[in-house]
Each structure stands twice: as C-alpha cells, then as structure tokens.
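Why does residue order matter? Because the sequence determines the fold. Keep that principle in mind as you read this record.
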Amino acid sequence: MKTQYHKLALTASLVLATALTFSCSSDTELPPLPPPNGNSDVDSSDSSGGGSSSSNNAAIIGYCDYGPITQYGGGCFPMATADDQANCAKWGNVVNSCDGTTVSSSAGGNLGGSSSSNAPTGPCTAANNTNTQYCSNGTLKTYGSVRDKDGKSYKTVVIGTQTWMAENLAVAVNESVNGSFTITVNYSRCYEEVKANCDKYGKLYDWATAMALGSACNVSSGHCDYDHPRIDKYQGLCPSGWHIPNVLDWNKLLHYVDGTPYVPEPDPFHEEYYESETAGRYLKAASGWGNGEGGDGSGEDKFGFAALPGGSGYTAGDSYVNYETTYDYYSGGSSGLWWSNGYYSQDRSGKDFYYRMNGYNTTVERYVSGGYGDDGTYHSGYYEDYIRTNGSAYPDTDWKTSVFSIRCVKD
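Structure:
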C-alpha cells in the first residue's frame, strides 16, 4: 500500500508541475489534480483552461483534457513530456487545444500510440459514452444536468436546437408501499411494482399525474380544469423551465434525428403527429432492449438520448372508467412509451397521445386514401398491412389512466 501511495504521489506531482509550468487562458485558480478514475461524477457544462506557451519555453506536444473542473480534479493542460502523455493516457483525453472546448475537439486518441479506454480513434459512438460525456452524431460532448423537485439530478443532452433529459423522470408522487392504488388519487408507479425497475427505467405515470392535474382529468372534460392546447409548454411534473413535450417538440426531435426536413404547419394548432421509420433506432439506448423473442432490440443511441424500455401499465379491465386498485403491466424491457402534452379530441376525452419505440417489429394496418389516378380514374381508399420496424418512433393514443414514462424537454 505504501508503494502504491508513493507512486500516486509521484504521478500527482508530475501533473501539478505541468499545471504550474504552463499558464491557462483562465485567470481563475488552477484546478485540483485529475482524479484516478479519469472523470468526475458531477454533472456540469464543459469546462477547460486555455493552452498558452510555457514559461520556460518547453515544446508543447499536445493538450490533455481531464474533464470538467470539480473539487476532485479536471481541467485542460498542455503536454510537454512523456510523463504528461502517460498521465493523459491514464486519466484524460487528448484534444486539439485548450481553447474553450473539451473532448468535443478530440484528436481521436492519445499520442504515442496509446489510448485511454473510451477515447475514440475516429468519430465516436455510444460505446465512448462515460458518466460525464456522450456521443452526439459522431462528436463527444459533456452532459448537462437538471434537478427535479426532490433534488434528484438527471443528465441532459442537446439534440439540434433542443435540450432533452437523457433519463426518464423518477420524481415520486404518493408512492404506495403495498402495490395498491386508487384511481381517484394521483400516483407514480414502478413497472410490475418492483422498485428495481424504477431504479432502472424511471417511474410510470398516468396522464393526469404527469401533467400535475387532478386525477379526474383522466376521465372527461367535465371534471377537469385543464384547458391548455396541445402546443403549450405545460410544466406538469417536469422541473422549472422544462415541460412535458408537445407535438411540436416530438416532431422537431424525430425529424432532426432521422435527417428529414422539419416544416412546421403555419398554424401550429394543425400540426400533424409525425411517425419516423428510423428515429427509434437512433434514440434507443445501445443496450438493454429485448426483441420479445430472446434477441437484442437495442438501438444506436446516436445522440445520447438513451431511450429505455420502461414498458406500460393499464388498469384492470383496460377501461378508463374503472376503479380497480391493480394494474396490469406489459412490454417492460422491449417497449418504451412516453406521454405527450396534448389531447385526443377537442372535448378532451379519456384518451391522449403518447410516443412509442419498440425492440421488435410489428405488423399494423394503415389506411391508404382514395383519389384520382394519373389516368383520371377514381380509386377508393383501402386498408393495408405494413411492417413497422423496431427502428420506428411513432405516436399513438391510449387511456389517460394508462401509466407511461416521461421525458422532459427544456422550454
């Protein structure tokens, strides 16, 4: 143990000497030594010092980013010796410069032929994600964070012009200790009433609970004081400055992720719910999804969204006018369902919209509209079967008493 201590102290001295030898662009106090685990558990925005020439004119052979500056270490420093390179290989990532960017400007691996375990040798993938960094369309970025009303912290990611939670909401609402519920009281639930599922997937909420409204709003407009159109930014259970995603939010996300142009309706009240054939593949986590047949149904997690298959729950009898105290649960581990801020019809009926991704393919029926062909002949509309693949992300409707996951988006 003594030998290990002296080795750590010697290595720490080398890093400190490097930090003192070179000046950073920031006038703030130099950060502490980088932690042995290579990153901090503290969620924060990108932080780095600047890299200028050293006071003794030693040749700079590269720059090393040790992650966000915290009480445990971090920061960005120039390298001038083989020891600096060895320290970076162990604790940091080589970057192009210390000019205000961190790993997002990664040179793709460490110098001298060695590389840290998660440093990409080219464009990154979800395999390069860490507790503090995520891959977004080939570039490593630093997670942001936000806290719910109970103080729990969630990772956040930037996708296009939007900022989304990278985890399902898990704020508690009238938790039950025995799995017994009453439909007239708002609750949050764990899939199959197993706490470990809440730890893994976040909590499940009926629509009224998600929107922070009275449970009567699950049943009919006559008992509900909710009068917000589906394009509003309605906070619900989300943290302050965040909201339950509406149709505009979901459409913008899915179009950006699948690479198709997003052209909003001139009148947002007429915005149609968009179904993407490929966005699910890019939004689903790279592991943890089954396909319902013992195989893998995971995605690529191309943008750090890390969607997880939290499943769903329905009141016994699958009726929204139901006062049973038990829920039946489905598709945990193979499907993820997330509430949207909207309503199924203008009279705010007992159904509402949600978005879904699956780890398996499904055959669904869709209607093909009729019309006049090129030959001037009228063709009637008809229904046809088509395959909705496990790469899809799509809207659907269900009873508001159903319990689904929540992902919040920033205002």
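Residues 146-410 form one domain.
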